[in-house]
Amino acid sequence: MDLLRFATAGSVDDGKSTLIGRLLLDTRQVFADQLEAVERTSRDRGFDYVNLALLTDGLRAEREQGITIDVAYRYFATPKRKFIIADTPGHVQYTRNMVTGASTADLALVLVDARKGLLEQSRRHAVIASLLRVRHLVVCVNKMDLVGYDEGVFEAIKRDFAEFAARLELADLTFIPISALHGDNVVSHSARMPWYEGPTLLWHLENVYVGSDRNLIDPRFPVQYVIRPRSDDHHDYRGYAGQVAGGIFRPGDEVVVLPSGFTTTVAGIDFGGRPLAAAFPPQSVTIRLADEIDVGRGDLICRPHNAPTVGQDIDAMVCWFAERPLTSRSTFVIKHTSRTARALVTSLRYRLDVNSLSRDEAAGRLGMNDLGRVRLRTTVPLFFDPYRRNRTTGSFILIDEASNNTVGAGMILGEGTG
Questions:
Q1: Average of pLDDT values for 180-194?
Q2: Is residue 214 situated within a structural domain?
Q3: Does the pLDDT of residue 10 top 60, yes or no?
Q4: Ramachandran area for residue 183 (φ above 0: left; ψ -120 to 50: alpha; else beta)
């Protein structure tokens, strides 16, 4: 079975955690003792219903406040597909957590409260999903039970969202009216909404095609670790371990190693102790080369006539995570694929208003949860592609040198001019 990663998004109290709880419950992923504990806690809190959000809100502060703070990852499977869910927060102060959860997602679920319509945070999360190149967006109009399952309410929200989304780069947009609390159109079709003839949420998740979303054109293999066993049986073995970031590698392929520029061929590809005829993203494999050349962590294996950009000046969009603002001339450690360097912010071009999509070119800093366009210069060359072409080789994180905390996440737009 293939794997689908998806993230929930939306405003506070739109029902994201409840929806995930409903998916887990109705697909029989919840153990009896877990359900009993949730039922007991729901009664103790005075709810007259089973609060399914308690299945995902694991932090004490989340349970006490009734909100999601951290990104909660949940796993489930159906006979058709495996799933990894990132339940992300709705509060604006936790936008950075939403970015983290959506950065690896194939699909984003944006929930909209049928009573409130399209809110600021719904727009914010749709913009972020677009910036993160999440190609598939599902808008779940939730709490349809509280508006009498009115088709007109659903159509009005659908129209408003589609008008806003026309300004974004979204390849696939789907609308589904649901009630997460009662399970309408989540796993089974709702008899209360006979006017809706589209798929249920689970059917869409099981059948949405994401195989073409990954870059299979540009071979990219960042080296994470050099394997040199010291046993007598493997004294001649030398392999380079990592995760395929793009394209397809096969034994016999001619490759070049960056930054040295030495060319050789792929002697073999190993996975779990057995040879592979081909490796493609996101497989983690070991590549053996025909010649003994100097290759180490941070190097990149690619094809000679299909190499990424090699440069020290980068133009990028950054989501800022830290309380201390990002300003020009700030320095950080940059982590890009398996390569680490130091980076200087040479300029802050603008701060992006994710609600109006306007650019504040007079902004002198990025505050916590802000997004903006910056130019960076690194101490050593990086091997990168535009984020829109490859999400792995087009992304990076910024790390504070003093605290070692991750303070920003970036999406490379192209080569900067310093």
A1: 93
A2: no
A3: yes
A4: left
Does residue 316 fall inside a structural domain? yes
**CATH value at residue 343:** 2.40.30.10
pLDDT of residue 291: 92
What CA–CA distances, in Å, run from 383 to 217, 243, 380? Answer: 16, 15, 10
Token output for 60: 């004490």
Give me the chain's average pLDDT, please: 87
Q: What is the pLDDT of residues 295-325, one digit of tens each?
A: 999 999 999 999 999 999 999 999 998 999 9
Q: Which of 256, 279, 302 is the last residue of a domain?
A: 302
| Number of other CB atoms surrounding residue 408 within 10 Å | 26
Q: Is the same domain home to 137 and 161?
A: yes
Same domain, 17 and 163: yes
Are 388 and 347 in contact by the 8 Å Cβ rule? The answer is no
Tell me what the mean pLDDT of segment 225-229 comes to: 87
Among 287, 301, 309, 198, CA closest to 256: 301
Helical H segments across 257-352, by residue range: none
CATH of the domain at 66: 3.40.50.300
Q: What percent of the chain has pLDDT over 90?
A: 59
Do 366 and 400 belong to one domain? yes
**Which residue in this structure is represented by tokens 């409903």?**
22
- Same domain for 235 and 169: no
Distances (CA, A) of 252 to 137, 240, 308, 328, 331: 39, 16, 21, 47, 42
Give the separation between CA 204 and CA 233, rounded to whole angstroms.
50
Domain that holds residue 350: 309-415
Residues 287 and 176 in one domain: no
Can you tell me the distance from the alpha carbon of 315 to that of 313, in angstroms, rounded to the nearest whole number?
7
Same domain membership, residue 27 and residue 98:
yes
Respond yes or no on whether the N-terminal peptide bond of residue 259 is cis (omega within 30° of 0): yes
What lies within 8 Å, CB to CB, of 163 at 6+ separation is: none
Helix axes 120-131, 95-102, angle to 10 degrees: 40
Asked whether the predicted pLDDT for residue 66 surpasses 50, the reply is no
Tokens of 356: 């109006």
